[in-house]
Design brief:
Helices cover 44% and strands 0% of the residues. The chain has 99 residues and is mainly α. 2% of the residues are buried.
Length: 99
């Protein structure tokens, strides 16, 4: 698991360098982002006050994103149906333990 995470960090650094080379970002902004990441890695991923887990469901219309969110949440919070597209807005859900 740690190996996969370090691969992602390496890839992110590579993308950051490409952004700098293309003029989309500065070295300072990349260093700020990476130092923030290094500070946060010592915190637990599931410690809500330190670093909440953010998940986005992306995909075409009618593929079941809203149905999946409703199932995971255990209640109907996103519109779902047989008419495409049913959801016409972004749905934000957070666990009841997060204020």
């Amino acid at each position: 698991m740690d190996y996969a995470y370090s691969n992602l960090v390496t890839q992110a650094k590579s993308w950051g360098k490409e952004l700098i080379e293309q003029g989309w970002a500065t070295d300072y902004s990349l260093q700020a982002l990476m130092s923030y990441e290094e500070e946060q890695t010592s915190a637990s991923l599931f410690a809500h006050e330190a670093r909440p887990l953010v998940v986005a469901f992306l995909g075409g219309t009618g593929v079941g994103k809203s149905s999946l969110l409703n199932r995971l949440a255990g209640e109907n919070i996103a519109k779902s149906g047989v008419v495409r597209p049913t959801s016409k807005e972004v749905t934000l859900f957070h666990h009841r333990d997060i204020s």
